[in-house]
Design a protein that fits this description.
The protein has 738 residues and is an alpha+beta fold. It is 27% helix and 24% strand. It contains 17 helices and 25 strands. This is CO/xanthine dehydrogenase Mo-binding subunit.
Amino acid sequence: MPVTQAPPSARKLTRVDGMLKVRGEAKYTDDISLPNMLYGAVLRSPYPHARIVSIHVDEALALPGVVAVLTAQDIPYGRFGRSIWDIPVLAKDKVLFVGDRVAAVAAISEEVAQEALTLIDVEYEPLPAVFDAREALQADAPVLHDAPWLYRGSVTHEGDHPNLQSRVVLANGGEVSEALAQSKYVFTDTFCTGTRHQGYLEPHACIARVDEDEVEIWAPNKAPYRLRQQLAEWMGVEQTQVHIHPVFIGGDFGGKGSPMEIPLTISLAQATGRPVKLRMSYAEDLMAADPRHSSSVTVRLGLNEEGRFTALEVDAVLNGGAYAGFKPMADVNLIGIPDAGSAYRIPSIRIQSTIAYTNTVPRGHARAPGSVQMHFPVESLIDMAARELGIDPLVIRERNMLQDGDKSPLGDPYLEVRSRETLEAAKALLSQADTPPLPEEGDWARGVGYTFYQRPTHGGVTEIGLEPTRSGELIVHVPFPDQGGGQLTLGRNILSRLLSMPPHLITVRQAETSELKWDTGCGGSRVTVTASEALHQAGKQLLSVLHERFHLPNGYTLPDLQRALSDFAAAWEGNWLRVSHNANDIEHVCSYNVTIAVVRVDRGTGQIVVEDIYAAYDVANIINPTSHYLQLEGGVIFGFGEAVLEDLMIEDGRVTHASLGEYKLPSMEDIPRVHMALVEGGRGIGEENVKAAGELSNVAVPAAIANAIADAVGVRMKALPITAEQVYFALRAKEDAR
């Protein structure tokens, strides 16, 4: 097997949801069928930018089995979104990208609904379009939104370019231009990252049922309480009137946080008076969901005579697509933008992030949003500077890395910085490497690439409900879904340890949104941080209640515990012990990472083979060994795909992939050997002493691979993904320049 097996300690406990998924018993949205249910379908724009002249739906309505056909005029509500409300349920006057929603059908079957779409007659007047983010901000660029500063949640102002979604500037340490001017050496270059789909296997789907003022939703959304809030505000109803039912989520990686087609499904259910299921096909999901922002990033790095960093300036322009509403942040920015250079001592820094509207698929969040776009350019330029100055690329990083007691480049204080321990663990991994000889066939060269990264830990708000049963067991009610990260198992493991209770006596379930108060939702690698402390406090409060009110002795046995739980259940008559926790205001934690890639490159063809990834991670305490290890290992493979395989091709505004078979995801035949060292201990968050892991391991991999290619054959790849063709032509250009 190409990927290293988890150590024995990581395989002791099974996952709560494991057997349900293996047996096919887990219920996903598309597995659910409601009585009298209809099926929805969406007519999408074939143009990247066009005026809608007319829409005729009479033939579609006349088709037997069609119950409703909706256009923008039939939608009683306005635009929606997460922070900025700029997404129409159906396009009214203009379409802004290939795949924009124009009309929708509800019918007795999917086949009838799809046939009805072919009978809708739309007349378009094509308009000039813009696909590049930098071009979109030019004075003469086609305008997508006439006055986007008027949208609810907008962060732009009248006078800004109408194609501007957001602009954020972060700075610390004085004027960066002066620091660069005083630097002995200054290196400048521009790097690009592509558009990538998150790669989840379950496309977006939704079932909506509307009964007078009550709305019920089944959808693979990873933030059900935020979704409830967004939908209630959009519809102008109380949050208690919106019910989000738990369902399994078939993969997320950042892509399952947006409302997506839920508002449209609600509109179809209202129009028909019947439940409606609307499922996006893979082609629709690829063309119209919320992939990663592509970027063009210019970096300037200053160094002194000793090769120490003096200043860093980053100017990032990101393609936000046709709408900004899929981004959850209040500043309509990406959470990873501060990651530029964050693993190093940098006395003066300035980071500018600009996101532009373009006539392409709207962008949202993919695993570590903004972090890859920042890390790849900065780490590539550091590598270029090291080679130009004749300094070993590992040495220059070690010379400049954060040390314990340092603040971040942007001035944030850390509990601790375990860069030294992490680096030594990575070096130890590499020293044990068994390097095979290069293949005899071909003109191969091998290279090693290094990257350093650190990721902050984010918090949130959650509530936990503990329900003892009369049989002496415990039901744990959590408000968040398990989108694959092992969150349900987290709850079982913490309480099993705290209570000295066998895991099989603890049941963890996702609650209905009506059963608990609030949860921030999955995202930003925050669930373990937020929920672990809530679960820990809940376990302590439960023990306190059992000791004080139900006579649980101090040195209790399992029968003692079960008796006390049974007495609790009888006395409380089904009521829960509820514990809320706010982890938003937490100390700054540094999770350090050193990633090393070993690749071989064929000089004749440009073929790239990533042989090994060695990575060390500062992880503090591990609660759920299996899921923790797999999160990190899976992140490495996610980063590998971003580096050399995955590219959501967009030509003239049109996504050219129709399925995940065409959009190349890594397979077992592709992936490298992965070797990981987990540096446990140190200072984390809360009683469980944890740090984030979900997005710690994917960010550094693309830069490490690019740096290894440069080490192997001396060509610098400045765009992701890196293909054999790009390497081949770079090698030929290098030869021609001699």
